[in-house]
Design a protein that fits this description.
The chain has eleven helices and 13 strands. The chain is of the alpha+beta class.
Length: 470
């Protein structure tokens, strides 16, 4: 009878194991479209054999619970590539906005910067026109008009860059609240995973942790460190601790010289975040490097044009009889920094344009020629104003192109890694259908054996009556 009982026990365990496996597959199918869900597979463990009359007989298997099909190295590679792509993507968006300011004739559409390159040419050409008739008031007025357009477009471009910088600062300052929500959730998930699955895969809890890690990495650059009992510590790329197993450390902000800086505890991590990746890395690179670089170039252009033109105008004779003291055409900058946004035309009377050479009669055009020639001379860091601005625009365009290429390559890598990860960890309905068929046949076989044993017992209990085993 013990042998019969053992058979029933074996069959019962087989049915339970198959049913458990079918439940895991059903859960996979139900979550096939759930974002971040990792497919699970049954774990089979061989039962201890049964010994009868000195002979060991197998006792079947037990399903010990599901294990998620994941590759942690692949997941981490995907996270790292996503944070790089997020950084170049947010920087590219900012750079495209900067570049749009300096597109020829952009001022006629949505930009307030105008066509600065054309403005420079028109301004110095207006002195060439004045050479032909230095006493003509309309030509003198044209000089002031073209000067006003040039100064206004440079100043507007600088103001737009400042506004973009402030907008990036505001966008970056909104990120810490998202980061802190995620690090707090990750610390809580660590506690749950360490308490419930310290030595095994934690299933959906680990899926949620991986999703949170992915979102966090797209915000800021992070490193992951596996700890005891299936825990996880998370740092910035420079090593500042954000999560230590069940504890999180908030990212805070503060104003330094009017600009948002980021802190963990008392440590300023702004520069590290800029280099680390994620959206914040792109925001900060554009805010602290790209836009200041563009502003510095505009400041140098405005300072040089204003200073050289004012100096030359004060070196001639105007229609009002001023010799060597005709006055400034542009506001004279006190320093290079800030020259662009403060650039303006201060001369209101066209008679004070000193077209004549010093001490010459009003019909002389010597000084008008000298001012026209400034347009072709290396007065801006050794380059002509037109060449300097053209090189600035070309450099900006090259930077945008490089970041675009980088972002395209990174996104392609993300797609490739995501495809690999989905192929490994995603739910494949064909595979699940095949597994269902296998387990159903196993279940049916165990059921059939159960029926056969039940029939044999019935036959034994009804001696003398023939029993048919089907």
């Amino acid at each position: 009878m013990a042998t019969i009982n053992a058979a029933f026990s074996l069959i019962s365990q087989a049915l339970d194991a198959d049913q458990s496996g079918l439940s895991i597959i059903a859960n996979n199918v139900a979550n096939a479209s759930t974002p971040g869900y990792t497919a699970e597979q049954p774990n089979w463990q061989e039962n201890s054999p049964v010994e009868i009359n000195g002979v060991a007989y197998g006792a079947g298997v037990t399903e010990t619970g599901p294990t998620s099909i994941r590759d942690r190295v692949l997941e981490e590679r995907l996270d790292q590539q996503q944070q790089s792509a997020a950084a170049s993507g947010s920087r590219l968006t900012a750079l495209n906005t900067v570049q749009a300011l300096f597109t020829p004739d952009s001022g006629s559409a949505s930009s307030a910067a105008g066509d600065i390159g054309n403005d420079i040419t028109n301004f110095f050409d207006s002195f060439s026109s004045l050479e032909a008739n230095p006493t003509d008031n309309a030509l003198r007025q044209q000089v002031l008009s073209s000067a006003t357009t040039l100064a206004g477009d440079i100043s507007n471009a600088a103001a737009s860059l400042n506004a973009q910088q402030a907008a990036l600062d505001q966008e970056a300052s909104a990120v810490p609240s998202q980061v802190n929500a995620l690090t707090g959730a990750l610390a809580q998930l660590n506690r749950q995973i360490q308490s419930t699955s310290p030595n095994a895969d934690a299933g959906t809890l680990e899926d949620q942790r991986q999703q949170d890690l992915s979102q966090l990495g797209q915000l800021i650059g992070i490193n992951q460190i596996t700890t005891e009992n299936n825990g996880l510590s998370i740092t910035t790329t420079s090593g500042q601790l954000l999560v230590s197993e069940g504890s999180s450390f908030p990212l805070t902000t503060g104003s330094v010289n009017g600009v948002t800086h980021f802190f963990i505890g008392t440590t300023d991590v702004t520069a590290q975040l800029a280099e680390g990746g994620g959206q914040v890395g792109g925001y900060l690179t554009a805010r602290d490097q790209d836009i200041p670089g563009a502003l510095a170039s505009l400041d140098q252009l405005a300072n040089s044009i204003s200073t050289e033109v004012n100096t030359q105008n004060n070196a001639g004779t105007d229609l009002a009889g001023d010799n060597g003291n005709a006055g400034d055409i542009f506001s004279q900058p006190a320093q290079v920094q800030g020259s662009a946004i403060s650039m303006s035309v201060v001369m209101t009377d066209p008679r004070h344009i000193a077209a004549a050479g010093l001490g010459q009669g009003t019909g002389d055009n010597t000084n008008a020629t000298a001012m026209a020639n400034l347009g072709g001379q290396g007065i801006v860091s050794g380059q002509s104003p037109t060449d300097y601005f053209s090189n600035f625009v070309s450099t900006l365009g090259s930077t945008v192109s490089n970041v675009q290429t980088e972002n395209t390559a990174q996104n392609a890598s993300v797609t490739q890694l995501q495809t690999q990860n989905d192929s490994l960890s995603g739910v494949n309905l064909d595979d699940e259908a095949s597994a269902v068929t296998t387990l159903e046949r196993s279940y049916q076989a165990a059921s059939q054996v159960f029926t056969m044993v039940n029939t044999i017992i019935a036959s034994a209990l009804n001696l003398g009556e023939q029993t048919t085993v089907s």
